[in-house]
Design brief:
By secondary structure, the protein is of the alpha+beta class. It has helices spanning 6-20, 45-51, 103-114, 123-126, 151-154, 219-227, 243-247, 277-286, 289-297, 326-335, 352-365, 379-388, 421-432, 436-452, and strands at 25-30, 60-62, 68-70, 75-78, 84-88, 129-136, 139-144, 181-187, 191-196, 210-215, 233-234, 252-267, 302-303, 342-346, 370-374, 394-396, 457-469, 472-473, 490-491.
């Protein structure tokens, strides 16, 4: 009879246990790399995708079903006038650097966001705050100038993240937060690595020990990276024509959902030729949404005719507002003084849906002698040249924030270059209205106003075309916000 020593038996048992232990790391693919790592300093959605709810926390958060849920605030009450919000904070919250989070920290973060020199991309949401009281370390009372039906949603954004004052100046490159994960490494041009926090108040919930966000900007390169096992999850695969291949491979699961990303052909309303509504209307009469959707998303995108997601119960189908009519488009161009056509440029960022849409749009517009020069730009260039400097004629990009119709009230300071007193009044009423039925009516009017003014040529709702390892669980099918909730993910045998 063969005898195994006790020490050898223990070693074999430990080896076997390790071999069958559940996997606790993940590599997530992303097409775009964040330009900085601080969502209060830059509008790039890629920052929120990695850091919001994982490293940075806000008072509230948006759940997978789109509802507002507690985050740093465990509960809240709203005053009868709709202008006073009292938030309760948990005790013992600490940042990754060991500093304590209190009501004063929240007050400091919001006053910083609203300050005159603030570059917070959601700064306008803090302009409605009249004052903040901190009666005790776990209580924050925020008083608004006017009621806001979306205030709790705004408080869930990355722009409303709560920062430790001592780390705030360095968060662009070395983030410090209070979330279930902490920042470990940023290798520019390649990856960001997060690791599970050992000090979070609910650290037992997270099963992923380390998460690597790998940047693969080339849509064609995403496929071999998945097939080789170098990437475990790619929530939005750019090469949508390859999804059938993954569907037939048992190593993967393909999950198709929706996003909050409306994708328009964005027209610069404050620059010729699109400062003339007739030219914007002409473009709307030229584009063929089905061809764009088929070519840019392999048919997975849903057509839209205004800035509102089709999955929302308040959505109004306005896709027939401007039927495809080349003769009508040419007539409008003639009235606007462009009977012989016009030369314009389109500057698409490096996302597959944007570049592909630009090519199809350019071909379609050429049918009416709108001669389009495609000038592809990298993401950092887009944020600078298009978004900040407003130096463009046309572009294509998804606007992925929920309830972002208020972008149409930002006037000439915003890169749309659109200004309408009627729109401003409608949005003001909608934000102040507490009755759901009346709010629905107002948002119906808002959708129609955007379409009537032909602010852009709306194309499709960006689909969430995810490819994941077959044994990964906790995946969000759709993305009501641009986040990756690592705490919901787990591996199964």
């Amino acid at each position: 009879m063969r005898v195994i020593s006790t020490s050898l038996a223990v070693a074999l048992l430990m080896t076997a246990t390790a071999a069958f232990a559940a996997k606790d790391t993940i590599v997530i693919g992303m097409q775009d790399e964040p330009p900085v790592l601080d969502p209060t300093q830059n509008a790039a959605a890629a920052i929120d995708v990695i850091f919001s709810v994982n490293v940075y926390e806000s008072l509230t958060r948006i759940a997978e079903d789109g509802t507002v849920q507690p985050s740093l605030a465990t509960s809240w009450t709203i005053g009868e006038d709709g202008k006073a919000y009292t938030f309760k904070l948990p005790k013992g919250v600490v940042f990754d650097n060991g500093e304590k989070l209190t009501a004063e920290t929240v007050k400091w973060s919001f006053e910083r966001a609203a300050a005159p020199n603030s570059t917070n991309p959601t700064k306008r949401h803090f302009g409605n705050i009249a004052g903040i009281d901190t009666p005790d370390p776990e209580t924050v009372v925020i008083k608004l100038k006017a009621p806001s039906s979306l205030f709790l949603s705004y408080m869930a954004s990355g722009g409303a993240a709560i920062f430790d004052p001592k780390s705030a100046d360095n968060n662009k490159t070395t983030p410090v937060g209070s979330g279930p994960y902490k920042f470990k490494q940023w290798v520019k041009g390649d990856r960001v690595v997060l690791e599970k926090s050992t000090t979070h108040r609910d650290q037992s919930k997270a099963q992923i020990r380390q998460a690597t966000f790998k940047f693969v900007p080339d849509a064609a390169a995403q496929v071999p990276a998945l097939l080789a096992g170098d990437i475990d999850a790619f929530p939005t695969v750019g090469a949508t024509e390859t999804l059938d291949r993954f569907k037939s491979d048992s190593r993967f699961q393909v999950v198709i959902g929706s996003t909050e990303g409306e994708v328009p052909l964005i027209l610069n309303n404050n620059k010729k030729p699109f400062s003339d509504i007739r030219m914007r209307q002409a473009v709307n009469h030229i584009i063929d949404r089905k061809s764009i959707i088929d070519g840019a998303t392999s048919g997975y995108g849903l057509p839209i005719g205004s800035h509102f997601p089709p999955h929302h119960p308040w959505y109004v189908d306005l896709t027939n507002r401007y039927p495809r009519d080349l003769a009508k488009a040419k007539e409008l161009m003639k009235e606007a003084g462009y009977a012989n056509g016009v030369d314009v440029t389109i500057k698409p960022p490096p996302f597959a849906y944007a570049r592909r849409s630009a090519e199809i749009v350019a071909a379609q517009l050429s049918e009416a002698n709108i001669r389009v020069k495609i000038e592809p730009v990298e993401w950092a260039q887009w944020l600078d040249v298009v978004y900040k400097q407003k130096n463009y004629d046309m572009t294509v990009v998804a606007h992925v924030s929920p309830w972002d119709q208020d972008n149409y009230t930002r006037g000439l300071d915003y890169y749309y270059g659109y200004k309408s007193d009627e729109m401003d009044a409608l949005m003001k009423q909608a934000l102040a209205e507490s009755d759901e039925g009346k709010r629905k009516t107002l948002y119906t009017q808002i959708q129609r106003k955007i379409a009537d003014d032909a602010v852009h040529a709306f194309m499709f709702q960006l689909p969430r075309t995810g490819v994941y390892a077959a044994k990964l669980r906790g995946i969000w099918k759709s993305s009501p916000v641009s986040v990756t909730d690592l705490s919901s993910l787990r591996w199964v045998d």
